[in-house]
Amino acid sequence: MNRRAVIRNLALVIGSATLLPSCLKNGGTPVVALKHLNINADQEDLIGDVCETIIPKTNTPGAKDLNVHLFVLKMLDDCYTKKDQKTIVSGLVEFDNMVQKRYNQSFGNLNEKDRVAVLTGIEESAKKQNKAKAPAGRNTKPQKTVDANPLFAFYWAVKQQTLFGYTTSQYFMTKQIVYELVPGRYNAHFPVKNLKQA
Amino acid sequence: MANLNIDSVKERTFDAIVIGSGMSGGWAAKELTGKGLKTLMLERGRDVKHVKDYPTTNLYPWEFPHHGVLPMDVQEANPIVNRCYAFGEDAAHFFVKDKEHPYVQEKPFDWIRGYQVGGKSLMWARQTQRWSDFDFEGPERDGFAVDWPIRYKDIDPWYSYVEKFAGISGNRDGIAELPDGEFLPAYPLNDVESYFSNHVKANYKNRHVISARCAHLSKPNQIHIDQGRTQCQSRTLCQRGCPFGGYFSANSSTVPWALRSGKLTLRPHSVVESIIYDEKLGKASGVRVVDTQTKETIEYYAKIIFVNAAALNTNLVLLNSTSNRFPNGLGNDSGVLGKYVAFHNYSAHIGAEYDGFKEWTTDGRNPAGGGYIPRFRNVYKQETDFLRGYASGFSAYRFKQHNYDGVGASLKENTVKGDLGPWYVGSHLMGETIPKESNFVKLDPKLKDDWGVPLLSISVDYDDNDEKMKKDYIEQLTEMFTSAGFTNIKPSTNHQSPGLDIHEMGGARMGNDPKTSVLNKWNQMHACKNVFVTDGACMTSTSCQNPSLTYMALTARAADYAVSEMQKGNV
Fold first, then answer.
1. Residues B533-547: b if buried by 16+ CB within 10 A, e if exposed
2. Does domain B2-170+213-346+434-461+498-566 have CATH number 3.30.420.40?
3. Which helix H or strand E contains B274, and what residues bound it?
4. Least C-beta-crowded within 10 Å: which of B83, B237, B429, B430?
5. b/e map of B252-266 (b: 16 or more CB within 10 Å)?
6. Over chain B, what is the mean pLDDT?
7. Mean pLDDT score, B296-307
8. How confident is the model at residue A12 (pLDDT cuts 50, 70, 90)?
């Protein structure tokens, strides 16, 4: 996706976001004018690639098709404390370095298998340290505090926001499940077998 | 010039003034205009027109910038109101932000406010239960506060009166301590809620689990259709304002009704600085208002004044209305004004699971929220080491559980795939607190708001009775849950500050004796007969029912009395 397209799409999903002027430089300048997060364009791309690895394009749209990666950036920028954002960003740097060191290339250049292995590896080691912060329950709203370990904090924050953004996206809520704004009914005694299965 | 002034005074003179436009103010305006009085309604905040001013009401989750989550800068700037469950991206615009209207906390108090036409009736939880004589006789029997000057028979017909108009869904349960009303069909209990209800009925004397009674139009009558309201559509997005008028709010019901009479002048952006006392006439002559947009101070005059500014702000207005006759606040001969403030104790919860009814679930959403357990402690006699008792919410629910492990295609599939989890059950405490002189509000001696009105200083706290009651709730509910075969029972208590229950009451209590109370049995000031207080400030005790229905009934009753007294020339 070229930059202009990113900006245009972003404007569609994030009406209120302030955007940088159109004369964007390549390299270090971020695509999105983030208000709080101090990250560059490459780091934004990296977050996008992590989002896409979490919810990939299959025979249905993936995170990037649905602009979930832009939603994730917005959430990271708007919905975390400064302290948590610092932790998350240092986790992002750590993540980048770790991948470079292990594979001698960036996360974005890895094949899908390796990308999945990297993320799964982080999740597994986080869980082993009993620091699992996997989303649970009936919603995927972001947790209130992030993990003290920056790498884990980065991973869980991006994963949660990707899941939250995806499962509350228009596509998901109209094509994968049916969210009803106006149910118009309450059946207190309803057979499980009659539930609509997606 | 003189003539102009006379005209201007004439234009600013009404039969009645209502201070506040929320739950009780809306009723005062409806009743007073309905009896032909030219009425001025003053609202300190902006106007909120039904439907038109509900900007988020029809938004889907993905249409919110953060899909419903409030940005951290908003959360951090509003530590107080952010603790309110309904303060989300969809309804934050109806809540007062912390810095907009500061107050002084001598002790921690989460003062949750809605400064707009409709007040908090826009975002309320819509639970509506009558009081009984077990509640009105409480202070007298148990020796606290002062005796209520009314009994159930005094308010019973007025409950009926407001219920018919507001639209209350519920069953006629035949429970003495929670009298039946004029009900629209109840929202049914689900399988596990019914199971628990039956279990409790069979195993406990005088304990009941009933369908929660709520202000929703399960099946509207003509009177509701006449208000422009239609059947509740089970959206459960009520805090955004309802385009169907499916639940009762001042905005959907009483205020437009009063406006249609042609007798109501609604004036938003009008902070009431004080009520003017006329020393010669020996009664109130009007109110002094600051227009928040022009900063202009304007006086309005009327024969009677209804104070419905919401409990604590009503105290503020009265305390700030000083004169030679009332140096300590209007009607405050007794010295109790601002004192004996109480609230509801919401600081405990209990959750569990039930392994049964696996083939059954629910479909759609229940606007009533589930079940309600009326007070069962100390009802017929004192049986514990604490005074009074508590009601409890009770609901059961289940939802699809997803495996969110890992990443990639399998995770993506799992966001849709999943099995229904077990039934979860939950209950929360709604405890009566005892009004005490040491729980009070007062005017801060130095600090003032943008309009020159002193800030309210709040000093309200829990006491030992509340701690004992909380412990008893956990014990009793744990026992009842265990007995019903619920598993994984998890009681939890919190230390939420008073105020977050949003049931603050008292300060201008009703009573028989002018020496110990501010209002008489008609919500009329003992010492200033043309001023009526019919919001939460009037409450002598709190019982444990959600209070709004009682405010509505007291307001309609007081308005009826006020007008008959006017006609007799007594006020």
1. bbbbbbbbbbbbbbb
2. no
3. strand B270-278
4. B83
5. bbbbbbbbebebbbb
6. 97
7. 98
8. very low
A128: exposed, middle or buried (Cβ count in 10 Å: 0-12, 13-18, 19+)? exposed
Q: Which helix (H) or strand (E) holds B169?
A: strand B168-169
Sign of CA dihedral B253, B256, B260, B263: positive
Helix (H, G, I), strand (E, B) or coil at B44: coil
Task: For residues B9-30, give the mean pLDDT.
Answer: 98
Contact list in A for residue B85 (CB cut-off 8 A) is: none
In chain B, what are the domain boundaries? 2-170+213-346+434-461+498-566
Per-residue pLDDT tens for B269-288?
999 999 999 999 999 999 99
Distance CA B267, CA B321 (A): 20
Residue B300's nearest CA partner among B342, B320, B272 is: B272
Question: Which amino acid would we find at residue B445?
Answer: P
ipTM rounded to 2 decimals: 0.93
- Dump strand ranges (E) for B279-407: 283-291, 297-307, 339-342, 344-345, 348-354, 360-364, 371-373, 390-397, 400-401
Name the strand (E) or helix (H) holding A41.
Answer: helix A41-54
Q: Name the token pair of B56.
A: 């988020």
Are B188 and A16 a contacting pair at CB < 8 A? no
* Structure-token match 């505090």, residue found: A145
Residue B234 contacts A where some CB pair is shorter than 8 Å: yes
- The answer to whether B410 touches B248, Cβ cutoff 8 Å, is no
B408 with A116: Cβ contact below 8 A = yes
Q: Which residue type occupies B530?
A: N
User: B359: which chain A residues are within 8 Å (Cβ-Cβ)?
Assistant: 191-193
Closest CA to A168 of B150, B240, B503, B68: B68
- Cβ-in-10-Å burial (0-12, 13-18, 19+) of A87 comes to buried
pLDDT of residue B7: 77
Using the structure block, give the residue that is written with the tokens 């919905």. Answer: A79
User: Is B363 in contact with A176 (Cβ distance < 8 A)?
Assistant: no
Per-chain mean pLDDT for chain A: 83
Matching residue, tokens 């982080």: A122
Other CB atoms within 10 A of residue B283 CB: 18
- Least trusted range by pLDDT, from A22-31, A63-72, B410-419, B509-518: A22-31
User: In one letter, which amino acid is B193?
Assistant: E
Instruction: Report the DSSP beta bridge partners of residue B396.
Output: B425
Q: What residue spans define the domains of chain A?
A: 3-194
Q: What is the pTM of this model?
A: 0.94
In angstroms, the CA A80 to CA A83 distance is 8
**What is the Cα–Cα distance from B115 to B407, expressed in whole angstroms?**
46
Q: How far is CA B549 from the centre of its chain?
A: 8
Taking CB atoms and an 8 Å limit, are B71 and A79 in contact across chains? yes
Residue A136 clears pLDDT 80, i.e. is over it? no
Q: What is the pLDDT of residue B180?
A: 98
